[in-house]
Design goal:
Elements lengths: L1 H91 L3 H20 L6 H28 E4 L9 H4 L3 E5 L13 H10 L3 H22 L3 E7 L3 E8 L9 H20 L17 H25 L11 H16 L9 H7 L1 H21 L6 E4 L33 E2 L5 E2 L9 E4 H18 L3 H25 L1 H6 L1 H24 L6 H4 L9 H27 L11 H24 L6 H24 L6 H17 L14 H5 L1 H4 L3 H12 L2 H8 L5 H5 L2 H11 L4 H9 L2
Antiparallel strand pairs: 1-2, 2-4, 3-4, 5-8, 6-7
């Protein structure tokens, strides 16, 4: 019973707590459904109201923005309008600077308006048009004023740059108002500043600058006879010209600078001393003067003109005058300083002054150019005007100064090309003084002058500054390189056609090569140290010149050889001489060859050095003899009459051939060379042996052969001799016996 009680008791206590737990669950369930309702309510109603509020807010915000924009636009429009009104008032009162500033203000308002995106007002286009019209109107007024302030009177003629017409140019500058009632007429400053504000000043000044250059500044530089003339009247200042007979063909830089300076002073005083209001956006350039602007526009062209037409002419042509050039440099400096003081020029050194200060280099350039021009003129002049040179002709020049006792070089004789001392070589072989001497011959007088030019230029180089002497040295090398390129091409046809010119050209080249051997050496102690380490040489040019001379002459020799063979080809092969016609043809061919050689002997006489002359004539005579021997030796049948006639033809060659050797104009001196013909004509003895065979009997031929040890064997082979015997003699036992001995 006790246990039951306990259980009841526990159960009774348990029931209520379970009850409260169930209550709790149902409460939670209720709350949840409440939340769901609320959530649904929020989603459906409150959210909608929120959206409306936000939309309203942004709509208000946009409206505010629109109103602000409209307000600022209206403000800008109002400003634009005010600016235009004020501009109109100022323009009527001729307050040009204020008018221009108002226009610029209107312009910047308009720019701001146009930059608003998504706000295109139709009115803007109209305003733009209005602004353009007003700007043009203002520029027109300013233009009118400017034309009254600076009046150009220009020459009427077409050829406006000639001296005759330039003399009539003048520029008038207004100084004070024209009439009493025009007191308010604006001064120059206002007009120019107004242009500046409108950004049109550049254009105006550029036109003014061009007129100034063309009709005033350049003529003053170009025409020494022009002098600037200034004249001040009550209300106008006049700048014009007067013409005077100049003392020289061109003015000194000092005179030109003075004239130009005067013009700038006038402009500075009456026109350009105006500080400028720059266009609003161009603040950085504040305080630029008109003078500076104009200077910027015309200085480059002006200084070019001064350099080309004034300084260039004043560069001295020989080094002794370089000292005096200092005053030119000084006056250039002063000229620039004056222009800087008037603010036409900015601070740094200009091209003009650099050019003047660089006189040494210009001197060298001018000198080198003169040298090359002179050289070219000599090279293109006639080759055939010649002078005779002998082993002791030197180049006529003053001796060089003694380089100092330290050098064991005797200079007294420099005017002679070869020192008459005996030259010692390493191995103690003695060379005669004539080793480097030239043989007597004729060269073009222009080439002699060219050589003198080279020597004089090198001489000048020895007294010049380093830079200059290097340039002069190289211009001498250029002379020779130019000769090498120009002469063969320029005189090409004549060198091919005229054997005498080919000979002279050959001599010219040899003469130059000869001088080039010693040229650098003679000046080596005098040319600046920079060139002394072996650079001052011309030796490298020597082989080229020798080759040039040889090639030209050899080409001429080939032409002459061709003509000899051409003439001998009409001799009918020297066959059947018993036929009269054949004999005449052969005789004529031989006469023509001799005539050709005689003529050559004459045109080369006294021109070629004797040894070259003898070699050349010997070679050509040899060509003829060799051809005749070949033709006769090839004949298969020679009758007795043929042999006689062939012999008489050969005798003409042997008797008259040597007479074509006349290297010297004095007849009696040529004998010696005519007797030495066998030395120069390789086939001479062979030709004589052939003549012997043509006259000999079989026994005599065998004797001449002498078992292959006789004179005949020295000139002909066994086969050739046998062939001649067969042609000359009929087939007999005696002939067979003779043939057997030729082996």
């Amino acid at each position: 019973g006790e246990v039951c009680n306990m259980i009841n008791k526990k159960y009774n206590e348990f029931l209520p707590s379970m009850q409260s737990a169930e209550d709790l669950v149902s409460q939670v369930d209720g709350l949840t459904s409440n939340i769901d309702l609320l959530k649904a309510g929020i989603e459906n109603e409150v959210q909608r109201d929120l959206n409306v509020a936000v939309a309203e807010f942004s709509e208000l915000k946009q409206q505010l923005e629109r109103d602000t924009l409209v307000l600022s636009v209206l403000k800008k429009l109002q400003e634009f309008d005010r600016a235009i009104k004020e501009y109109n008032t100022a323009l009527l009162e001729k307050k040009y600077v204020i008018a221009a500033q108002q226009l610029e203000k209107a312009r910047s308002n308009l720019k701001t308006l146009e930059s608003r995106k998504g706000f295109e007002l139709k009115i803007l286009k109209a305003l733009g048009t209005e602004l353009t019209v007003q700007t043009q109107n203002m520029l027109y007024h300013l233009g009118e004023e400017w034309q009254k302030l600076a009046v150009w009177k220009l020459p009427p003629s077409k050829d406006s740059s000639s001296l005759e017409s330039v003399v009539h140019s003048e520029l008038q500058l207004r100084m004070v108002p024209l009439k009493e009632e025009d007191v308010a007429a604006p001064p120059v400053a206002a007009v120019l500043q107004a242009f500046a504000v409108l950004g049109e000043l550049h254009t105006k000044l550029k036109i003014f600058g061009q007129l100034l250059l063309k009709f005033i500044l350049k003529p003053l530089i170009l025409y020494p006879s022009l002098q600037p003339r200034t004249e001040e009247q009550s209300d106008v200042f006049i700048l014009s010209f007067k013409s005077e007979k100049p003392s020289l063909d061109y003015s000194s830089p000092m005179e030109v600078f003075e004239k130009i300076k005067l013009v700038f002073e006038v402009l500075h005083k009456y026109l350009l001393n105006v500080p400028l209001e720059q266009p609003a956006e161009d603040k950085k350039e504040h305080g630029v003067t008109l003078a500076e602007l104009l200077g910027d526009m015309i200085w480059e062209e002006l200084s070019d003109c001064l350099i080309q037409n004034c300084l260039v002419n004043s560069i001295p042509t020989n080094s002794s005058k370089l000292q005096q050039y200092i005053e030119v440099i000084k006056s250039t400096e002063e000229f620039e300083k004056a222009l800087k003081d008037m603010q036409f020029l900015k601070g740094d050194t200009t091209e003009l002054l650099k050019y003047a200060r660089n006189v040494n280099s210009h001197f060298a350039n001018k000198k080198c150019q003169d040298v090359i021009v002179a050289a070219r003129n000599l090279m293109t002049s006639e080759i055939h005007n010649t002078v005779k040179i002998t082993p002791d002709s030197g180049v006529a020049l003053p001796g060089l100064p003694d380089p100092g006792a330290g050098h064991h070089l005797k200079t007294q004789k420099t005017s002679n090309l070869v020192h008459n001392d005996v030259v010692n070589l390493e191995n103690e072989t003695k060379l005669s003084q004539y080793t480097f001497a030239l043989p007597t011959c004729r060269i073009s007088s222009s080439v002699e002058k060219l050589m003198e030019l080279a020597y004089q230029t090198l001489l000048e180089a020895t007294t010049s500054t380093d830079q200059c002497s290097i340039q002069l040295f190289y211009s001498v090398r250029n002379i020779f390189q130019l000769f090498y390129d120009v002469v063969p091409t320029y005189h090409k046809e004549n060198l091919q056609k005229l054997p005498q010119l080919a000979a002279i050209h050959h001599n010219n080249c040899m003469y130059i090569a000869h001088h080039l051997l010693t040229l650098g050496h003679q000046f080596r102690y005098h040319l600046s140290n920079i060139l002394c380490d072996g650079a001052a040489t011309f030796v490298d040019l020597v082989p080229g010149f020798r080759r040039l001379g040889m090639e030209c002459f050899l080409a001429q020799m080939r032409v002459q050889k061709g003509e000899i063979l051409e003439r001998l080809s009409s001799a009918r092969n020297f066959s059947n001489m018993d036929d009269e016609e054949n004999y005449c043809a052969a005789n004529k061919a031989i006469r023509q060859v001799l005539h050709q050689l005689k003529r050559l002997g004459k045109v080369w006489q006294d021109v070629l050095p004797v040894n070259v002359y003898c070699k050349a004539m010997g070679t050509l005579l040899n060509t003829a003899l060799s051809e005749i021997v070949t033709r006769i030796a090839a004949l298969e049948d020679i009758s007795a009459e043929d042999a006689d006639r062939l012999y008489s033809l050969c005798r003409i060659m042997v008797e008259e051939g040597p007479q074509v050797f006349t290297p010297l104009p004095e007849e009696d001196k040529n004998k010696k060379y005519q007797e030495e013909v066998p030395v120069y004509v390789q086939k001479w003895m062979m030709f004589k042996e052939l003549m012997i065979i043509l006259q000999a009997n079989l026994q005599e031929i065998v004797d001449q052969w002498a078992d292959g040890k006789g004179p005949l064997a020295a000139e002909f082979s066994a086969a050739e001799v046998k062939s001649l015997i067969r042609a000359l003699f009929q087939n007999t036992e005696r002939r067979a016996a003779a043939l057997a001995k030729i082996k």
